[in-house]
Design goal:
Strand content: under 5%
Number of helices: 3
Number of domains: 1
Distance between the termini: 55 Å
């Protein structure tokens, strides 16, 4: 079985029995967004919380 199919099955097992199709779609959407975010962070790098706060302060101080 493919890793994707196993991941979907695991997700379905975690959701309540009375979940809707919209609930399933939402959770699949969140999983995909997280995957893309991790991939982007690995590719482009990340910045620290302190650095982000300094940059944000510069943007809002103008």
């Amino acid at each position: 079985m493919s890793a994707t199919k196993e991941e979907v099955k695991a997700l379905l097992d975690k959701l309540p029995d009375d979940c809707t199709l919209e609930d399933v779609q939402y959770h699949l959407y969140v999983v995909e967004k997280i995957r893309r975010g991790i991939g982007r962070a690995e590719k482009e790098g990340v910045i620290s919380q302190d650095e982000l706060e300094r940059k944000f302060h510069k943007w809002t101080s103008k």
